[in-house]
TrEMBL record:
The keyword Protein biosynthesis does not apply. GO terms for molecular function: metal ion binding; phosphatase activity. Its cofactor is Mg(2+); Zn(2+). This is D,D-heptose 1,7-bisphosphate phosphatase. GO terms for cellular component: cytoplasm. The record marks T64, K114 as: Stabilizes the phosphoryl group. GO terms for biological process: carbohydrate metabolic process.
């Protein structure tokens, strides 16, 4: 039996948009960035959650703000090499991410940095079957949830570790369609 009822905002989801830091991997301390693969640590059961989504037939699309590029802390090539290693690690766990979009810009410079929606719009272009109506955004920042709201896309807020929660977490929890403590819990409760 499927626990997700037809009235759920999650009953018709074919595309799962994931934030990266704080959803797939441990969020670095505020003001620090994942500058290289050595700093990338998967959150518990993240690989299994993504593999479960794959088996359920969903496409997985990562949308991540990487302002550290604009700050000169690492290069775009560095971001891309982290994503290659991430996908390689996931493949070894039977999990697949279908596409990764990142914003390398600083605040207020572009349309792609979340809560801007340009990364999502690019994904809708690249995956013509995807739309706000058959997608969900899962993120741990207010900007993730605000981007989803602008698109009228359902969203799930990952509350994560209360000690590491950013300002705006309470608002994000209110704006999101649901909350969960982790990607694994979100997938189990709402998507599979
Ligand atoms: Mg995040
Ligand atoms: Zn951008």
């Amino acid at each position: 039996m499927n626990a997700v009822s037809a009235k759920s905002p999650f009953h018709n989801i074919d595309y799962v948009f994931l934030d990266r830091d704080g959803v797939i991997n441990q969020k670095p301390p505020e003001g620090e960035y994942i500058s290289c693969w050595d700093r990338f640590h998967f959150l518990p059961l993240a690989e299994a959650a993504i593999a479960g989504l794959n088996r359920s037939g969903r496409r997985i699309i990562v949308v991540t703000n990487q302002r550290g590029v604009a700050l000169g802390l690492y290069s775009e090539a560095g971001v891309q090499s982290v994503h290659i290693a991430m996908r390689h690690h996931l493949a070894a766990h039977g999990a697949r991410i279908d596409a990764v979009y990142y914003c390398p810009h600083d605040k207020n410079q572009c349309d792609c940095r979340k809560p801007g929606t340009a990364m999502f719009e690019q994904a809708f272009h690249d995956f013509p079957g995807a739309s706000a109506a058959n997608s969900v955004m899962i993120g741990d920042s207010l900007s993730d949830i605000e981007a989803a709201r602008r698109l009228h896309m359902p969203s799930i807020f990952i509350e994560g570790d209360p000690e590491k929660q950013k300002p705006g977490a309470e608002k994000a929890a209110l704006l999101a369609d649901a909350t969960a403590s982790s990607l694994a819990e979100a997938v189990r409760r709402y998507l599979i």
